Amino acid sequence: MELWDIIFDNHMHLREDGYNIEAARQFEHSGGTAFNLVNLPNHELPAADYYENVYRKTLKLAEMVRRETGVKVAVTLGPYPLDYLHFSSHVGNIKEFILSGIDRAVDLILKGEADALGEIGRPHFVTDEKTVEDANDILEYAMEKCSDQDIPIILHTEDLTGDSYKELGEMARKAGFDTGKLIKHHAHPKDFSIDSILLKSVLATRKNVRESLIMSRGFFLETDYVDDRSKPGKVIPADSVPKRALMIKNQYDDWEDIFESIFRDIPVSVFGEDTLF
Ligand SMILES: [Zn+2]
């Protein structure tokens, strides 16, 4: 089904042992044309060469989708915030371990193999002070590193308040990360009442789409599809973004303006035209 020239999902995961190509085909058949593939943590892998292994697997999955479907794939690589908790008992210096994961991701992005750094940030649940402190140091390091290179950052954090949006915006400013390519993954429609330099990416449920469109036209839609065969109902299905696109087309008179903004202008401003078309 063709809905429009670009229908973009800003946050998907695929697994080697998941539905992978099948999920990508389902997305394509519903009218999806491009998505951002974010690496998943795999804590069954050993700490040695962990990031190299996880990133290579993700890049392989992206290649597979490009080869087997007509879907365009942007790739986001980076240390998942919970890696810190998992690997702290496996490695000598956990902070250095995570920073090495950031460095390797940035290397691959600069070589043109991937497009963005993420999902990095802070655990989404309450942890001890030291974990949050280190997470913030790591984030600052990442922002400084990405600022000169124009690399987008996908943030995974706790649900943000006005204060924490401000805190992260300040952090970015201090790091010289003023590219407008800082994206809050898993933002909520209520976040649109908060003025922030962070771009918001919203889970593509019907309710979220309706509520977000009342407040804004400047956001991403995402599924956060996790491709887990053992938990099929855990998140919304792989074709949710194209399905929401169809809903918008059917229910909004100005659907073309909406499509133009959330599927073309915003994604292209972050990932570039060559990656998405
Ligand atoms: Zn995710």
Task: Give structural attributes.
277 residues; alpha/beta; 8-stranded parallel β-sheet; 8 strands; 45% helix
Task: Give structural notes.
By secondary structure, this protein is of the alpha/beta class. The protein has a single domain, classed as Metal-dependent hydrolases (TIM Barrel, Alpha-Beta Barrel). The chain has ten helices and eight strands. The protein has an eight-stranded parallel β-sheet with strand order 1-2-3-4-5-6-7-8. Helix 2 packs parallel to helix 4 (about 95-110), helix 4 (about 95-110) runs parallel beside helix 5 (about 130-145) and helix 8 packs antiparallel against helix 9 (about 255-270). The longest helix is centred in the N-terminal third of the chain and has 19 residues, at about 50-70. The model has no long low-confidence stretch (mean pLDDT about 95). The chain binds zinc ion. Zinc ion (ZN) binds next to loops.
